[in-house]
Amino acid sequence: MTEQPGPSTGQQQAEPQAPPAAAPQSPVAAQAPVAGQPPAPVAGQPAQKDKTVAILLAVFLGFWAWIYTWQVDKKKFWIFLGVGVLTLGLGFIVAWIWAIVDAATRDAGWYAAYPNVA
Fold this sequence. Notes:
Number of strands: 0
Largest sheet: none
Order of helices and strands: HHHHH
Distance between the termini: 94 Å
């Protein structure tokens, strides 16, 4: 009786090898945008704003919509919060209308360039 080589005799069978790993990408190539997709947001920068969202916020939230563009509109927000409180709510009606008009009259490019706008 002859023994056949196998796992019981101490001989090991060859294991399948994994395909070679792909070469690591450079950090610049990893951040490159893919065609048809918007670029990923950069840490520390606010997300791009949209005019439609600004108008909807103004219609439903009134002067609270100015928080959406806080870096530019914080003075308006605080002024109308104070006016609304001092006038027992009547100032909020004026602020509501102003917020809608303000959001609607700004160009879509203004929102795309936010916060780098004057």
